[in-house]
Design brief:
alpha/beta; TIM Barrel; 45% helix; binds flavin mononucleotide
C-alpha cells in the first residue's frame, strides 16, 4: 500500500490538546497498522526528550510498525534520538531538513540548524536504519542527498507550513524523479485526501506517499478506528483508480496515466 502516515506530533501546541501524545501515537500507528500500512511518530521540537521517549515507549509496548521523523537538531542531539529510535524497532527515519527554516523551531531552548553536505553525510553514516531526508523540493537537493548516501528523500513543502508560496509538490516531483533515476527511494506528501491522489503521485514516479493532516483529523475524530477508516478509504479508492486506469499492481502505475501540465523531459 503506497500510502503511510507522515510524521506529525505536538498534540498540545499543534492540535488543541484533545489527545495526549500517547493516545495520538496509539491512534495513528494502531489505525495505520490495522489497515496494513505504516504509522509515523514525530520527534516534536516543542517537547523535551522525555516526551519523545514516551512516544517510542508506546511504539515498543504495542510493537507498532512505524517510521520516526526527527528534527534537524544539533548533530549530537539527532544521533542521540537515532539510537533511541533504533531500540524501539522502527522501520526507517526521516529528518525534515526544511524545518530549520522555521524560526519558531528554535524556541523553547531547543536548537535546529540548516545542514551542510558534510553534516548530511555524518548523519547517514551514524544511522543504522534507512535514513530519508525530508523537505526536498529541487533536483539539485535530491542529488546532494544521494551523494550524501541517503536511502531516500521525501519531496515535501511541509504542507505549505514552512514557507508560503513554495511550489506544490506535484509541480516539482517529475523533475526530481527524473534526476534521481532510481538511485534512491522517493516519497512525497502534500494534501493527500483520496486514493486518486496516491495514484497521481505514484504515476509521477513516487515510490510511496505520506498523508499528514487527514490522518491527524481521523485520529481526533475516531482514534485508531478513524485512522484505519481513512487508510482503508484511500486503499479502496486507489484500487478503483487502478482498475479504471488499467494498473493491475502498484508497479504498473506509470506516467501515461496522468497529464503533467507544462512538463518537458
Ligand atoms: C500538526 C503537524 C505536525 C507536524 N510535525 C511534523 C514533524 O514533527 N516532523 C515532520 O517531518 N513533519 C511534520 N509535519 C509535516 C507533515 O509530515 C507533512 O509533511 C505535511 O503536513 C504535509 O502533508 P499533508 O498535506 O498531508 O498534511 C507536521 C504537520 C502537521 C500538520
Amino acid at each position: 500500500m503506497p500510502v503511510i502516515a507522515a510524521p506529525t506530533g505536538g498534540t498540545t501546541y499543534n492540535m488543541g490538546g484533545k489527545l495526549t501524545e500517547e493516545e495520538f501515537v496509539n491512534a495513528i500507528c494502531g489505525g495505520c497498522n490495522k489497515a496494513g500500512t505504516l504509522g509515523a511518530v514525530a520527534d516534536g521540537i516543542g517537547d523535551p526528550l522525555l516526551v519523545y521517549e514516551k512516544r517510542l515507549q508506546t511504539l515498543k509496548e504495542h510493537g507498532y510498525k512505524a517510521i520516526v521523523g526527527l528534527k534537524p537538531r544539533l548533530q549530537k542531539d539527532i544521533i542521540e534520538r537515532m539510537r533511541l529510535a533504533e531500540e524501539a524497532g522502527i522501520i526507517a527515519l526521516t529528518i525534515d531538513l526544511d524545518s530549520a527554516g522555521r524560526a519558531a523551531r528554535a524556541t523553547k531552548g531547543q536548537t535546529v540548524e540548516p545542514k551542510t553536505f558534510e553534516q548530511l553525510k555524518e548523519l547517514v553514516k551514524a544511522s543504522k536504519l534507512p535514513l530519508l531526508f525530508k523537505g526536498i523540493m529541487t533536483p539539485d537537493e535530491a542529488e546532494l542527498c544521494i551523494n550524501a548516501g541517503a536511502a531516500g528523500i521525501v519531496v515535501s513543502n511541509h504542507g505549505g507550513r514552512t514557507l508560503a508560496d513554495t511550489p506544490g509538490t506535484a509541480a516539482v516531483l517529475p523533475r526530481i524523479v527524473d534526476k534521481v533515476n532510481g538511485r534512491c527511494f522517493v516519497m512525497v506528501d502534500g494534501t493527500l485526501a483520496r486514493g486518486t491522489d496516491v495514484e497521481k503521485y505514484v504515476a509521477m514516479g513516487a515510490n510511496c506517499t505520506l498523508a499528514g493532516r487527514h490522518f491527524v483529523r481521523a485520529a481526533h475524530g475516531g482514534l485508531a478506528d478513524g485512522v484505519a477508516l481513512f487508510a482503508n478509504k484511500m486503499k479502496n479508492e486507489l484500487a478503483v483508480a487502478m482498475v479504471l486506469t488499467g494498473a493491475q499492481a502498484v508497479k504498473d502505475i506509470n506516467r501515461s496515466m496522468v497529464v503533467i501540465p507544462d512538463y518537458k523531459a
